[in-house]
Specification:
Blueprint lengths: L1 H4 L4 E4 L14 H29 L3 E5 L14 H19 L5 E7 L20 H14 L3 E4 L1 H12 L2 H14 L1
Parallel strand pairs: 1-2, 2-3, 3-4
Length: 180
């Protein structure tokens, strides 16, 4: 792509692997695959595209993480920590690359109806279609916001919960788990 198009203007890192998983169900190969897909693939993509963007002084990176990266959630034993790492990576990329003229965007969707969320056996609040998620991402990019999170009524609730002291956060999570 770099050769055929004389550079890349926008790269969206959106690969993901997810299986509902509890800590006592860990299998090394599954863990490796999820980390390779969700986190390491972004580093490989950065290696392939970032030097060209920096040389041109233009271009944008979009990292699709998840609200599962806001805090430790049940069933996300490997998925959640990889998405938390992407949130951290997007923050540091913004700090380091934005002054050089590059755009960096972080996308934190809630539940989107995909083959990945089809594995969930629980009710997913505010479940969106892929089309609605794509529209939310495009709106966020058009506004130039660093973090694009949706649906807002759900993401605001999780952001608020992540600010609670651990004692209260764990009690709230337990109530949610007991109800499902």
């Amino acid at each position: 792509l770099r050769e055929a198009w004389d550079g890349v203007d926008l790269v969206v890192f959106c690969a993901a692997d997810y299986r509902p998983l509890r800590p006592w169900e860990l299998e090394a190969e599954s863990v490796r695959h999820t980390i390779e897909t969700n986190l390491n693939s972004v580093y490989y993509g950065l290696q392939a595209t970032l030097a060209d963007m920096l040389a041109r002084g233009s271009g944008s990176l979009v990292l699709v993480a998840s609200v599962a990266g806001y805090m430790g959630l049940p069933n996300a034993t490997v998925y959640g920590p990889t998405k938390a790492a992407l949130i951290n990576l997007a923050e540091l990329l913004y700090a380091e690359l934005h002054p050089s003229g590059l755009g960096v965007y972080l996308v934190n969707p809630g539940f989107v109806k995909t083959r990945l969320t089809a594995h969930n056996a629980f009710r997913m609040p505010a479940l969106l279609t892929p089309e609605a998620a794509a529209e939310a991402i495009l709106r966020g990019l058009a506004r130039g916001r660093f973090e694009i999170d949706f649906p807002r009524r759900f993401t605001r609730l999780l952001k608020l919960a992540s600010l609670l002291p651990y004692r209260l956060r764990f009690a709230a999570l337990q109530k949610v788990m007991d109800a499902s």
